[in-house]
Amino acid sequence: xSGKLPRSADKSxxxxxxxxxxxxxxxxxxxxxxxxxxxxxxxxxxxxxxGSTSSSNRDQKYINAIPEKITNPLTGKDTFYCYKRPGFAxxxxxxxxxxxxxxxxxxxxxxxxxxxxxxxxxxxTIYDGTSSIGTITGVVTSITxxxxxxxxxxxxxxxxxKGYYYPTGGAMTxxxxxxxxxxxxxxxxxxxxxxxxxxxxxxxxGRIYNSDLNSISAWxxxxxxxxxxxxxxxxxxxxxxxxxxxxxxxxxxxFRDVGGATKVTPLARVNEAFIKIGAMxxxxxxxxxxxxxWVSSSNIGSISVYVLDGYKAKKISTETIDSQLNLRxxxxxxxxxxxxxxxxxxxxxxxGQTFVYSMEDDMWHEWSGQVRYWHKFxxxxxxTPVVYSITRDDTSGKVFKLNxxxxxxxxxxxxxxxxxxxxxxxxxxxxxxxxxKLAIIGDISTSSxxxxxxxxxDDYVTFSTARTLDISNNRNYLTNCGSFRRRAFKLTxxxxxxxxxxxxxxxxxxxxx
Length: 513
Hints:
By secondary structure, this protein is an all-beta fold. Among the domains are: 1-19 and 422-513, Jelly Rolls, CATH 2.60.120; 106-332, 7 Propeller (Methylamine Dehydrogenase, Chain H), CATH 2.130.10. Helices cover 2% and strands 47% of the residues. The protein has 1 helix and 43 strands. Strand 20 (234-240) and strand 21 form a beta hairpin. The protein starts with 12 loop residues before the first strand and ends with a strand. 42% of the residues are buried.
């Protein structure tokens, strides 16, 4: 098509279409999942959902593209950008041939940069760097730490009711006390939590057991408190400020140390703090800085993502995210969190798909790649902060890192694709429009970095053949972009370089009809 406009066209307008908005993905209709999702016909292992499908290839979305809001302190005006997520570089290879299950930076040791990791989906081996510090029976689900009488200890929860600890200068040791709940015919659940010299673990009936004071190995049969304000199953514990939080399937209770060593249990319930929302499972809870996030479950069947705000549950998931969570239902959901490049990110990992929430921007987007390198994170407290991670999805046996001083934009050396897909653009008019020029507004790349630009005029069903723009050029635009009534745009970039976009600039003329 020539760029010449028909006589019936009005004069052209130059408009900017922001590349940041609300993540959206319709869930009801005769549509299909993205083939990369790993879910076919919405049949999920263990759950078959009939009558609802997810069209993850439709509507406005950001994949490997982090939305960002910058507020001008003088004017109060917000400017929105979208930049490519950082990639994962190889840090070390403790256990080639094994899957990762847990990771922690041991703050009580060294300079605050000692990386402890667990690998193995049958029995797990724990590594200090690349050196084994013990192999245990069962799969490690979490690694926590506590300081007892001046000695730093790692405490390890396992999926078979067992518990282990590793003291500074000591050896990996199983908790063998017959009164430890996992050794007393109780089914433990979730991670250990620590407070005031005590170690706590929950069982599936909702009991919160505690160790003896200043001990991990010694437990007493009657040292527990019931989280029974509401009759539901126990899910797991988390530490919140100076409290232990007990998560059930349909409720949350708070406990504070009020008794010291003089009582059977040091805990007492904080009666004014009760939340009638539970957690989906122990892997669906994550601690992040001064709060806790979790994927909820309740007696009305809703599944959402919340963070603790005082004694209240603050919902952060949108209806779109909720609908995707509900489609997965009882399938395993993993939650993890990390502070990356100034943003506090919560990762909601579903089968074949990961949604990510930025707390600072109150926005959702999506991460994808050949492998999910974000199963669990840990960060150091050294002079240069580095975030480490492990993946459960492959057997590389590696610990990965994200270094803000020297970021990479590949995952373990492999490229990944940033995708920005806009909402449908029509200038609020049904008249046919003629797009004579399209330009990408954003940072100029210091190296050749190509965007593929395509568009859909039929509600995301088909997209045009992609045309390319190199954002290392000062002038990057397309001409003769055809006519439409309503159009959505898709931008993809698979370069190994940073990208930051602000908008599409469109030169549009309107016809009379």
